[in-house]
Amino acid sequence: MTFKRETRIARILHHGANPDKGTNPDKHRSMAKEHAKEALKAHRDAVEDAVRRVFVPHLRRAGGRRFWATWRGTLRRLRPLGAVSLGNRIRVLSDGDEVFERMWRAIASAERRIVMETYTLQPDEVGGRMLRELSEAAQRGVEVDLVFDAFGSSDLPDRRVEELRASGVRAMAYNPILRWPWSGRLSRLVRNHRKILVVDEDTAFCGGMNISADYAGKRFGNGRFRDTHLLIRGPSAGDLAEITRHLLEQDQRKKSAVRMPLLAEISEGSLVQILESNIGRHRRAIQRALRWTIRGSQERCYLTSPYFVPPLLLVRIMTRAARRGVDVRVLTTGRCDVPIVHAASQHMYGRLLREGVRIYEMTERTLHSKTVTIDGVYASVGSFNLDRWSHRRNLEVTAGVLDRRMASELEEHFQEDLESSREVRLEEWNKRTLMERVGQALAYQLMRL
Question: CA 76, CA 60: separation in Å to the nearest integer?
Answer without folding.
Answer: 16
